[in-house]
Design brief:
alpha/beta; seven-stranded mixed beta sheet; 27 helices; 60% helix
């Protein structure tokens, strides 16, 4: 039985189960930059990408266009020579452009609305048959009682199809003379009544806009193209703007490959071609911000969208969402790729560490070479190392020494206090108080072992994460820590109760073993079902503002589920494998050592579970501030997982299928 217990403790795959914690850490670290990543699969895909295609307007540039001038192309009975006018002068063209821009959210349409407000230009037109053509522009029929026009407003290639040959030549000449630093849109107005057509003729106006390159774009592009861990990213530009302006921006940023004047379907085609022709790994990332980019975002292996909210059209098709409010925009891109590659390395390290520790501890445990306490320590220690290694994603990049300092502190502080306590013990023994130095040392050793076992047991049990997550999601730090500590206290009481029952009935244990195994599965299953149900109810009615207000009222949130939390923790502790961490107390030399071990184990469990749950609470509160809907979905998802696992364990207990040994503790 002793060897079997050691084998079960050593072979439990908790370290393997904790390996994906690196994905959670990476997603949390990236979220600090105002970036939302849709799962661990996206992290894997990001780490494999070696080519990044960038949109121009709103991605590399600010996307806040400003109208600086309007030039009319003379008609047969109109102006003799074209010349640029201020938007304040040509209010007629501005009013027509405003009429057709009301139903569009494109940066050019927003710039026209802003310019019209500054020029106090009135719309005054009734719009009919409005149509928005992605990648081209907008068109509509407008009238104000006296005049009736059919308008096209958009790209040069789109509007040129409606112009005469002479007007097209003039348009090309004006565009070529305008320079490379301007964004150009063309308005074409065709009178609908015969009288207006004869008196006025067609009107064609060129709108000139400026768009500033983001201050961080050059640094971001240079960082993306630099070598990181033996890999570099190829950066390209895919844009719907004219080639001259695209090349002008690309030259400023150091982008060598540019594809301009692209429609949304053209961007999709180029992304598919680059996957086989340009990328060595076959993985492409596309970065955009508008509705025209949505097809390319969905086609790429990783779509990265700059959006004001998670409900924007581009965001709905993306795998990564860079929120413009509070986010660091383009400068976040290099960080995202670095974290993804770092996470992939950490995942490999975790797998190697977990497999090696399980194999190295299992065989000696079966042979009886490793005692139970050593098997438990290797099992819990390897799981904790996997967890700590995963948390490296949360450390600041430039402060790698923080992790080393924490590790050194974790090793030195207990040693320092242990030496102080030993000095006190020596002093007491010298004073003749009858306290044995050897006995004190054994008690301190037992207490430190109990504290170590309690903390490791709490932090490395995957079932603890499943149980505590629904109770902590969306709560304040104080409320989450309180509930976690209370659940840990109930869990320890259940363990001690079952341990005492184990000792009293050990002579009959061989006859009741199957019954106890089934009872263990049912106990854990019922616990997870209860916790999942409570967590689902909380998530369903979750309101972050209300939670934050109630968090300041003493006793209201903290005592709401106190009794239920303690009860579920107690029930969860009534499991045979839950007593493995405290079995070393039975083998202690003296009752004082056993007592010190159990008390320290209890303290370590409560403190670590309180910290564990508070940490989850802090993360969920931060996420709730960004997006309460995501917090609610995560909380409900974790509740469903807990209920599903609970039902599976209860059914396994009923039908005699042992899932505890399959899942570990």
């Amino acid at each position: 039985v002793y060897r079997a217990a050691a084998f079960l403790a050593a072979a439990a795959p908790c370290a393997l189960v904790m390996t994906p914690l690196a994905y959670i850490s990476a997603i949390s670290a990236i979220a600090r930059r105002g970036v939302i990543v849709r799962g661990g699969k996206v992290i894997d895909a990001l780490s494999s990408c070696d080519t990044v295609a960038l949109d121009k307007t709103g991605t590399l540039t600010e996307g806040k266009l400003e109208c600086i001038g309007i030039t009319r192309i003379p008609s047969s009975n109109g102006l003799s020579e074209p010349h640029m006018m201020s938007p304040l002068e040509d209010t007629e063209s501005l009013s027509l452009a405003l009429a057709v821009s009301q139903g569009s959210t494109h940066p050019i349409s927003r710039a026209v609305k802003k310019c019209s407000a500054r020029a106090e230009a009135q719309n005054g037109f009734k719009t009919q048959d409005f149509r928005m053509i992605p990648g081209h522009g907008v068109e509509a029929v407008v009238e104000n009682g006296e005049r009736n026009y059919k308008l096209q407003f958009g790209s040069i290639d789109y509007v040129s199809k409606y112009l005469s040959e002479a007007s097209s030549r003039q348009l090309d000449s004006l565009v070529e003379a305008s320079g490379k630093d301007k964004v150009i849109a063309v308005l074409h107005a065709q009178p609908q009544s015969r009288g207006e057509a004869q008196s006025q003729g067609e009107m064609t106006s060129l709108f000139f806009f400026t768009d500033k390159v983001r201050s961080a774009s050059a640094t971001a592009v240079d960082t993306l193209q630099s070598v990181y861990k033996g890999k570099r990213l190829d950066v390209l530009m895919l844009t719907g703007d004219r080639e001259a302006n695209a090349m002008h921006v690309a030259d400023k940023l150091g982008i060598k490959k540019v594809y301009a004047s692209l429609l949304p379907e053209d961007k999709v085609r180029y992304v598919e071609e680059m996957r086989s022709d340009v990328s060595k790994s076959g993985h492409i990332a596309f970065v955009g911000d508008g509705i025209n980019d949505a097809p390319a975002l969905a086609t790429a292996d990783v779509g990265i969208a700059f959006a004001n909210s998670t409900t924007a059209a581009a965001a709905s098709a993306a795998d990564v969402i860079v929120l413009k409010e509070g986010g660091d925009h383009i400068s976040s891109l290099p960080y995202i790729f670095r974290v993804a590659r770092k996470t992939k390395t950490i995942i490999k390290q975790n797998l190697i560490l977990a497999v090696v520790s399980i194999v190295a501890a299992t065989l000696p445990s079966v042979a009886g070479k490793f005692p139970l306490w050593l098997s438990v320590s290797i099992h819990e220690g390897s799981t904790l190392l996997v967890a700590l290694n995963s948390l490296r994603c949360l450390l600041p990049e430039s402060k790698w020494w923080v992790g080393a300092a924490l590790l050194v502190t974790a090793l030195m502080v207990p040693g320092f206090y242990f030496s102080k306590v030993m000095q006190i013990g020596v002093s007491l023994s010298q004073l003749g108080l009858g306290l044995s130095l050897g006995g004190l040392a054994l008690m301190l050793e037992s207490a430190s072992a109990g504290l170590f076992a309690g903390a490791l047991h709490s932090l490395t049990g995957p079932d603890h994460l499943a149980a505590l997550a629904p109770l902590s999601m969306g709560r304040t730090t104080l409320a989450a820590g309180f509930l976690g500590g209370l659940w840990g206290f109930g869990h320890s009481m259940g363990q001690l109760f079952f341990g005492a029952l184990f000792i009293l009935l050990k002579s009959k244990l061989t006859l009741q073993l199957d019954l106890i195994e089934n009872f263990a599965g049912a106990a854990v299953g019922l616990t997870l079902i209860a916790i999942g149900y409570v967590g689902y109810k909380e998530a369903k009615n979750f309101n972050f503002d209300r939670m934050r207000k109630e968090g300041g009222k003493k006793g209201k949130v903290l005592s709401k589920f106190s009794l239920a939390t303690f009860g579920t923790g107690f029930l969860h502790g009534l499991s045979p494998d839950a007593i493995f961490p405290i079995l070393p107390a039975i083998t202690m030399n003296t009752k004082a050592c056993a007592f010190a071990f159990v008390v320290s184990f209890l303290f370590g469990t409560i403190a670590s579970m309180a910290s564990y749950t508070a940490f989850i609470g802090v993360g969920s509160s931060a996420l709730a501030q960004k997006s309460p809907d995501i917090t609610r979905k995560v909380s409900m998802g974790s509740s469903f997982v807990a209920v599903f696992l609970g039902v599976a364990l209860v059914l396994s207990a009923i039908f005699g299928i042992d899932l505890l040994q399959m899942g570990g503790h």
